[in-house]
Amino acid sequence: MPRRLGELEDAVMTRVWQWNRPVTVREVLEDLQKDRSIAYTTVMTVMDNLHQKGWVRREVDGRAYRYTSVSTRAAYSAALMNDAWSTSDNPAAALVAFFGMMSAEQRAALQDAMRVVQRDDPEEAEVLAEVLTEDPGEGPGEVPGEGEKGPGR
Predict the structure, then answer these.
(1) Which residues contact 133 (CB under 8 A, 6 or more apart)?
(2) Helix/strand/coil (H/E/C) assignment for every residue in 3-71
(3) Can you tell me the distance from the alpha carbon of 84 to that of 94, in angstroms, rounded to the nearest whole number?
(4) Rounded distance, CA 131 to CA 100, Å?
(5) Beta carbons of 88 and 51 less than 8 angstroms apart
(6) What residues have CB less than 8 Å from 138, skipping those under 6 apart?
(7) pLDDT digits (tens, 9 = 90+) for 21-76
(8) Please, which residues bridge with residue 64 across strands?
(9) Full 3-state SS string of 76-128
(10) pTM of whole model > 0.85?
(11) At how many degrees (to 10) do helices 122-132 and 104-117 cross?
């Protein structure tokens, strides 16, 4: 499972993901310098570290490297969510609490995603869709078999 990116690693990867093309250290540096004072060697080190960790691949282009993302931000976010969920001692309760924290827009996005995966397991997608369409004002409730309420209850 991936570990969470550091603040500067995330700032660099955000640009690589947004631009969705091979980038140089110089390009990333110039964009980062719009928001902060940062040295070329710092950005170069971060990008080298991201390469060593497998987040980006690089190809030689003259005297520089061009870096390309190995994965997407969506895949990174999904891996972090999966890691957090899988370490819970009660995954069902964690999901109920998570759903209770979601905004209406987030629940709608999740319902759209479930329609996509519904082809693989229609029964499972139907159960999740029912949970997501419950009254959002009630927040997380009891998990069957647990007898405990969600956070703050």
Answers:
(1) 111
(2) CCCCHHHHHHHHHHHHHCCCECHHHHHHHHCCCCCCCHHHHHHHHHHHHHCCCEEEEEECCEEEEEECC
(3) 9
(4) 10
(5) no
(6) none
(7) 999 999 999 999 999 999 999 999 999 999 999 999 999 999 999 999 999 999 99
(8) 61
(9) HHHHHHHHHHHCCCCHHHHHHHHHHHCCHHHHHHHHHHHHHHCCCCHHHHHHH
(10) no
(11) 170
Q: Write the CA distances from 143 to 93, 123, 136, integer angstroms.
A: 6, 19, 16
Side-chain half-sphere CA neighbours of 107 within 13 A: 21
Residues linked to residue 61 through DSSP beta bridges, in sequence order: 64
Rounded Cα gap, residues 71 and 76, in angstroms = 7
Name 67's bridge partners.
Answer: 23, 58
